[in-house]
Design a protein that fits this description.
alpha/beta, about 15% strand
Length: about 260
């Protein structure tokens, strides 16, 4: 249209000139608006919003700014050993607007009561002795977690976050039980969580007896990594949460106050 106007204006009948001018103005206005949109998108991207704008439009507003996906692996055997001790401590920081992973905390933990992993434990979790030998103990790892929480802005009172686990065992049994055994305090942020099994049952109307495997199957999702790898289980939890959020599910705390 621009080329036509500049190269052939003399051949355009006078009666058509107003329409040509109107079309040209509309074209210029469209280009201007597109340019503004690009500039806006660049500015949003510079503040961490750009890539998520499309995703935000497809998610309902969640009650939390961040979801902290957690899945422990612990010492184990048949028959079960006591006390069990956490040997893998992973957390994924999931953005509540986009349901994308923003940050990862992942450490292996040196067990102190039963420092030698059993063959059953290694076969189940994939964690070998060399992965825990020389690693920080639970007290030291909990200190690192608190430092990571502070660095990520999760301790700011204005930021709403909550842990998410596949079941109640991690934060109702495992962590408080080991902390009690070792005489360690349990931080308040570990005392409320979302049990993904309960959330899934509310959303889908059925209880996932086999945990992540049933939830992935029910949502037609591929399982990520190996079962009973803490970090891989976290990735599966995050993927299930994102899928449920896409379907309009609003996540709520399921644990009862301590």
């Amino acid at each position: 249209m621009i080329a036509l106007f500049h190269t052939g204006a003399a051949k355009i009948p006078p009666t058509l000139l107003p329409r040509v001018r109107q079309a040209l103005c509309s074209h210029r206005l469209l280009c201007f608006l597109q340019g503004c949109g690009s500039t806006l998108n660049r500015k949003l991207a510079s503040h961490g919003f750009g890539a998520s704008m499309a995703a935000m439009s497809s998610f309902p507003p969640q009650r939390y700014h961040y979801f902290l996906v957690l899945d422990f692996e612990a010492t184990c055997d048949k028959p079960q050993i006591h006390p069990q001790e956490i040997i893998e401590f992973p957390i994924l920081k999931l953005n509540g607007r986009t349901m994308e992973i923003e940050s990862t905390f992942h450490m292996y933990v040196q067990p102190v009561v039963h420092p030698q992993l059993t063959p059953f434990c290694t076969e189940l979790t994939g964690i070998i002795q060399g992965m825990v030998d020389g690693q920080p103990n639970l007290q030291q790892v909990l200190e690192r977690v608190d430092e990571w929480m502070a660095k990520e802005g999760l301790l700011d009172p204005s930021v709403k976050s909550i842990f998410v686990t596949c079941g109640d065992w991690d934060l109702k049994v495992m962590l408080p039980g080991q902390c009690q055994y070792l005489g360690l305090p349990v931080a308040d942020y570990f005392k409320q969580w979302i049990n993904l099994k309960k959330a899934y049952s509310f959303a889908m109307g059925s209880w996932p007896k086999n945990g992540l495997l049933d939830m992935n199957k029910g949502l037609n999702l591929q399982h990520i990594g190996r079962p009973h790898s803490g970090i891989d289980d976290c990735k599966n939890i995050a993927n299930i949460m994102k899928t449920l959020a896409h379907r309009g599910f609003i996540f709520k705390q399921t644990s009862k106050p301590f």
